[in-house]
Amino acid sequence: MRGSWALLIVCCASGCDGGGSAPPPPPVASRFEAVKAAAPGADELAGFCDVRAQPQQGAAFRFPTVAGTAPAATGQARFLWLNLWATWCKPCVEEMPMIAAWQKRFAAEGKPLDVQFVSVDEDAAAVPAFRAQHPSAPASLHIADPKALAPLLTELGLDSGAGLPIHVFVEKGARVRCVRAGAVTESHYPIVAGML
């Protein structure tokens, strides 16, 4: 009995199939192997933006109504990067220092732009409390009416329930060039730089 088990194990390990010489079937690809990632193409902007337009062909941009003093004619003279965020949104909070650093880096490269953070927190007191705990966080405005977020997202071409953060890139002359729902990472720097 012991010998027959050993023979069975050897036979299975060596691919015995009872005398036939058919090659073993190819391994079944897992679903991760079967779906190959798209190679970086000529138009990386298409993969970065959820909504995009050709230069100077985008929809007219309307700055959201904010509590307190709104920025004066932002996006008219220079490129504007509007970041919609919330204090409870971890990716939002994580990317803010990087975006602020990119603004300085772009300026050093001769590509100045305005970066404006607008909190969409339900509670207006959330931003001052957040800034007290994170004094190095960039300054932020607060949306006047959080219920206005869904219509704003629809106006920008996104689903009204799109997740934060939301990035809106507005060209000189206040035309929307690109809208992205989701965080940005260091790998996106050249894509953003290419829009400026």
Describe this structure as you would to a colleague:
- It is a single chain.
- With 196 residues, the protein is α/β, with parallel strands linked by helices.
- The chain has helices at 2-14, 31-34, 44-48, 90-108, 126-133, 149-155, 189-195, and strands at residues 51-52, 79-85, 113-119, 141-142, 166-171, 175-181.
- A hairpin with a 3-residue loop joins strand 5 (166-171) and strand 6 (175-181).
- It is globular, with a radius of gyration of 26 Å.
- The N and C termini lie far apart (77 Å).
Based on Cα principal axes, name the global outline: globular
* Secondary structural class: alpha/beta
- Per DSSP, the total helix count is 7
The CATH architecture classification of the largest domain is: 3-Layer(aba) Sandwich
Instruction: Indicate the CATH class of the largest domain.
Output: Alpha Beta
Low-confidence stretches: 1-19, 25-42
* Helical content (DSSP H or I, runs of 4+): 25-40%
